[in-house]
Design goal:
CATH superfamily of the largest domain: Particulate methane monooxygenase, b subunit. Chain: A, domain 1
Distance between the termini: 49 Å
Radius of gyration: 29 Å
Number of strands: 22
Number of domains: 3
Number of helices: 6
Amino acid sequence: MSNTFNRVKTIGAYLLLVLFSDSVLAHGERAQQANLRMRTVNWYDIEMSQSKLDVGGELIIRGRLRPSNFWPEHIPSVDGRVFLNLGASGPNFVRETSHIDGVSMVQSTSLQLGRDYAFEIKLKARRPGRFHVHPILSVKDAGTMVGPGRWIEVGGSAADFVNEVETMFGRMVDLETFNLNVIYTWHALWFVIGGAWLFYWFRKRPLLIARMRAVEQAEAQGGDANDILSARDRQVAIGFVIVTFVLIAVGYQWAESRHPVTTPLRTAKINVPKKDPPASDISVILNEARYRIPGRSFQMSLTVENNGDSALNVSEFSIANLRFINPSVQTLKPVDSHDLIAPNGLRVEGGQIPAGETKTVNVFAEDALWETQRLTQMINDPDSIIAGLLFFHGDDGGREVVEIGGSMLPVFN
């Protein structure tokens, strides 16, 4: 009976893995807390140079990011250390270069809250397959802030991948195979030494639990637990120590003779130039924010002051990588089945904001994405603060991007 039950559990786990593996591989970011996604890094204008390429082909990710002014106080922020990186399911791409505001991100840096940064990541496809790719920002002591993802299909064969670089002395090396034989040799050597050490002690009696009890008994009787070690045991242990240190010394000398000039891993911090907050001709005050749970409707009352020369329309609301689009202002469709865009998800009451005027508008972001992306968890946050980007399009073709944030009140009926 128990064997049958175990088989059923195994088959069930396998079916779950097969049926839902794509969802797990692609959307682990949904596991992050709602306030962490809403109030940390705002990503927008994300572009990927292509969605289909072959092994060895180049993929470029460009976009903009804006660390939120409403960053949670209990979470270390971007003014410490951050690192621009790539989120993908395994080592399927090689990062060639990455930049923030044109500054190379080969090392970590720090950013400012509320500032706008342009970034670029250049990749080379390493393995064939279909991968969900995200730009990510790793924040020291806080974790990884995941940007919007896209499905990328890589064709060809893994055998076609070449990853060669030229050293400072003009030597070409393939990073995929460089010194692999040395790595295998050292691993095998240490496994042999470790196995010999375990073999010696496993053949001794008493073993493991019984030995521990013998030590406890000796200590309880006021004796010396080391008495269970024989002179031979001590000699063997000293021999292993000597062999270990000799191998380390010989390996060090061998490496120094083979590679006399080396560069240590860099730990310095790269400085991105300080910058002013984004210039804007518009001021937005969040008067009230409500989330109506039964209708999956997020409602905001906004006071908008237009100090520009052109009338403005609310075109988009972006929060936690979800994009709610006002179809009366712009037409935007998801680029793939998991692109988090609600093409008809934004409704605005109050109309256009004329130039030089101040107006109150009501904005409704309504879509099942609130539920499927687990953002409804925000009603359980102790502070219930939300934050996101509001986009305005002007009659002159211009665009304004403003961050809004404040307290949110859940509505249960």
